[in-house]
Structure prediction request, 315 residues.
Amino acid sequence: MDPSWKVYVSGHRGMVGSAVVRKLESLGYEEIETATRDELDLTDQTAVRRFYELEKPDAVIIAAAKVGGIGANSAYPADFIYENLVIAANQIQAAYEFDVKRLLFLGSSCIYPKHAPQPMPESCLLTGELEPTNEPYAIAKIAGLKLCQYYRKQYGVIFHSLMPTNLYGPGDNYHLEHSHVLPAFIRKFHDAKEKGDSEVIMWGSGTPQREFLHVNDLAEASIFLMGLENPPDWVNVGSGDEVSIRELAHLVKEVVGYEGKIVQDSTKPDGTPRKLLDISLLNNLGWQRKIDLKSGIKQTYESFLQEQSTGVVRS
Prediction:
């Protein structure tokens, strides 16, 4: 991707989008276009078309999405499928209409079947039922991926997708009910430490296995893929390592310095039993992650403390 291009990053205030912007800046990109939600409603097709027509970006990275954990997906399924569908469709169509040279759509590993082979290869897409707790979000992300694939097939545009594993890092959402598991643990253990609580509740059995990738690695992988002349229609991006939810809880507890107990709440759902991406395609293309999980959690907790001290923590 040419550093002289104008690159529009949608969702630049989110954890992923902000990491992509930081990476582009570090590589010397000077024309990085962004728009806040107040400036551009991505669910408004007319507004999106007008924005693309006026700004004429050379490249687009779609990091904007309505995101959340099991609790949020269960509580607001209609919101998750509708908003994510239109965010993808409006931008991909506008990018085609106004001659965007490259477009990268960021999906999610939840697009793969609940009982997919482990690790999950790209080829297992649409071969089985989805995990019910995040099906609305997954369907919207599959639609975005397929839009890119078929616009590329029909029109010859280089629109493609990456499917990241569970992400974490600076700028994450630490809401106790609506966040993902790792930032929720950071918030829970930190609050318990500050209050002197004797125990922290862990949802479910603690046995599900999860893979985590630092968002800075994801940003680097995004720019790497956009630099390929002929990228795959979609490619998995992960760390290649997995950890149980219980092991993750103890790891976060250690990093935060919490001294109390971890108590299991077996009435809460576990979600998918195992979710490890097959990242052999990406590795064969020449990219590997750099930040290991413990180092990444330490960096993230330091970022959380800084964000909290300055009043910008998302919670």
